[in-house]
Design goal:
Layout: H1 5-27, H2 30-51, H3 57-75, H4 77-92, H5 95-98, H6 107-114, H7 122-133, H8 138-145, H9 149-166, H10 178-197, H11 208-224, H12 229-242, H13 268-282, H14 289-302, H15 311-324, H16 328-342, H17 344-352, H18 365-376, H19 380-392, H20 397-408
Amino acid sequence: MSVHAGEIEAVFREERGRLLASLVAQYRDLDLAEDVTSDALEAALVHWPVDGVPSRPGAWLLTAARRKALDIVRRDTVYANRIAQLAVDVERADPVQHGDEVDLPDDRLQLFFTCAHPALAVEDRLVLTLRCLAGLTTPEVARALLLTPATAGQRVVRAKKKISQSRIPFRVPGADELPSRLPLVLQVVYSVFTEGYSASSGEDLMRIDLAEEAIGLGRVLHRLMPDSRNVSGLLALMLLVHARRGARTDPDGDVVLLADQDRSLWDTDAIAEGTALVERALNGGPPGRYAVQAAIAALHDEAADAASTDWPQIVALYEVLTGLAPSPIVAMNHAVAVAMCDGPQRGLELLDELRNQKELARYYPFPLARADLLQKLGRDADAVEAYRVALACVVSTPVREMIERRLATVRR
């Protein structure tokens, strides 16, 4: 029986995170779990093309991984002693100190919350969770966090070393710990969604499976913490953005920008659900960052066409977001919104104030936004240069082709 490579790859994407989470929960050792996960996937690559994908691929992979882990523990005294010591450490932990453990209904979320341990540096927690547990590659993590791949890799190594040396236990946090760990978990889920919404490499603009996995995790969080306005805001944001997926490419697979999309192809049910969640997230106190971003997305989704978009309100919301979560990307988006209200010259002035921000050095939307405004101002030579800078930052084939088409429209 022959199996298409794409079918196996899809199963791997679906099962890897759950497999790793189950193994970490059992063996309480991230390195061991990663090693045997890789071994199980390699074994599948040998057997599945011949035997076919099993009816329960996750169970097959888990069995293969556990057998490999058992072999390692039997022959490696260091691993055996480490696992035994970690088990003792967990048993000795005072349950009163952390409150009652929370029953998290998804193994991946359990690991997300576990790796949000305060003993790890904030930047290391995020990189570790995205790379090892969310399953993003190092370049994808680097893109999500505006880092170089080398820096992202160093942070993963540093976090693993800290976990090993400090014997940080892999356990579900207590109810009293969830609020302090929630922001990192939300950031991880949103970073996974962002990579799915706009793939950083490859032949496809989107990785729908990854985006929908993030939305699924958002729904689990919402069921777990229905009164959390931050959770409601994040789920709303993902739904409102993902609602446009059907219009983001044309029948030939070419990228269609927001202003040119056929809005009849947008998912009205997702927009209605997201809008209701936005209202919940905005009521009851000062808004969180995801609620404000979701409100911006809702204004785009509610507009009948690009011309009727409420740009003054979007500018105002970006100013609120700047106060909540200032970043070069927020400032860039604010500048683009200002350009829609006050004209391309004012928007370009604001963008040019950001040119020395290192986080934007390899972020293609920044030179692409500059190129668009320069072209509108008739500064064609400068627009060409900005488009070429954007091209140099892009790995994704559909985005590269879109920028090349835009470049071809500039008068030479």
